Amino acid sequence: MVALTNCQPVSNPPVTGEIQVPSKVKQIFERACYNCHSNETQLQWFDKLPIISSVIARDIKEARKHVNFSTWNSLSPSDQKGTLWEIYTMVNAGKMPLKSYTVLHPSAKVSVAELSILKSYLQTLKVRPVADSSRINSANIQYLQWQKKRVVQNKVPVSVNGIKHMPEYRNWQVMSTTSRFDNGTMRVMYVNPIAAQAIKDKNINPWPEGAVIVKVVWEKLEDKQGNIHPGKFINIQYMVRDKEKFSDTEGWGFARFETPELRPYGTLASLKKCIACHQAVKPTGFVFDLPTKN
Amino acid sequence: MKTYLFYLLTGLVLISNGCTPVSNKSITIRGLEFNSGKLKVVTAYVNEKFNIMSTLYGNEPAVKYSSKEKPQHVAGEVFKLVTFEQQDHEFWYGSKINGALLWVETIHTEQRKEGLIPVYTIKYYGKSKPDQLDKNARIKFILEQKASLFP
What we know:
Chain A is an alpha+beta fold.
């Protein structure tokens, strides 16, 4: 019995910059998330039992790496906001708190009423598109500079994981367009012929080998008539289906190229993190931006 | 005894929980409702007031005009402004996404005796139709759209 209760301890490092949100919202985070996603973990007696304690220690380590409410201030303001919308998406999709956790800790479950509190709070963080003359000018300048440089551009950028920019995407079908009010961007999503056929055949879980999804992202600018147009180009993102090469990220490789110069983004490790958020859309083969029928 | 009982109960709960689907909500994915053929996207826009999302496509001469590579129109330009209903994004709360295809406006530029003429047509796909559109205003609006940066 002594051996059975000899647990692997979970330490609580100092709280260096805790999240600041309205108390109603914080209470939900504290009850449902803090035990794994903060440095204020409070273990129950059964969490310290062998097997369970090692699973819990591993989960907490992973959880803190992804989101840690105790070191929230180490995130940039835009990452803080982005993470809050991601949290809502994961909770709303039933991905968080983990089912295996709520089985033993039912009090961590988030109710419909609490989801609605989170939703109302996020509404206060919406980004309204603006079109002041400086933003319009900088978008115009960016476009003109890109047009000039495009003539001499002959090198195809490659991401650290081997995914290449595919300029031929412009000949592909558009899958969807989105308008984000969480971060003030708009996007056009393309699918290559393999992915387009998969959508047509309703064969997206899993998506076939060779499917590629491309997302072009711009800042939003609103004109006087209320039309919201693409402003400055931000980045182009890729999801490439290769079950073997990307076996540890559900068969999807992720890449992003930033600014009109298409600078490859991220490290092998950071690109692998993309799948964590995409786990929320397992029913669509880990793809978010598919239009649905109501 | 308490510990062994706990392991037994936990094991049973986990096994039974593993058989429960995460969500019972059924999802129907839309097909690709507009086939652009050989046309390329020129730009896209959103109008919150009318709850619509539009994508402007063009053939090579049309893209060149909208990107100001060619300052004058030429015969044979094809523009297609494809308008969808805007709807909530099922999978990402912080976003809107296109819904059903509503209508497609097409402009062909044609060389006639009287000069270069933009020929405008509209085709409806959805249940809802917009108020009577001012044809000349629509031609002006579509031809004024500036190409966006697609790297």
